[in-house]
Amino acid sequence: MFQKFIITSSGVLKFGHVYLHREMLEIGEDDCYGGGLWKIDHGRNAILLYGRSFDFGGPDFNYVRKIDWTGVGGKPLPLFYLPHWPNEEQMEPVYAK
User: Fold this and answer.
1) 3-state DSSP assignment of residue 71
2) Beta strands in the chain (DSSP E)
3) Whole-model pTM above 0.85?
4) DSSP for 44-55, written as a single string
5) Which of 3, 30, 38, 63 lies 20 to 30 Å from 18, alpha-carbon distance?
6) Cβ atoms of 6 and 55 closer than 8 Å
7) CB of 16 within 8 A of CB of 36?
8) Helix (H, G, I), strand (E, B) or coil at 7
9) How many CA atoms lie within 13 A of 61 on its CB side?
10) Sign of the CA dihedral with 41 first, then 4, 53, and 12 last
């Protein structure tokens, strides 16, 4: 199992521990606005998002309308996307619009 995230077609950013991003889609959903991997950075007390989904491509955070925190223990933390991972010098904040 891997720590992965997707942005569903209804704009929900979901976290999971799955083998495939596709496993996080609801029944009847067959597409999303991309995804990637995530990890908790205890030093920054934040969740770092990085990489891209092989199934759905890179994440498009412009479509995030809601964040489902259940996959990371239910506790909201600051979210940052690392566009040039593993280089952590550039971090972009992620939030629901």
Assistant:
1) helix
2) 2-8, 12-18, 32-41, 46-50, 66-68, 79-82, 92-94
3) yes
4) TTEEEEES-BTT
5) 63
6) no
7) no
8) strand
9) 15
10) negative
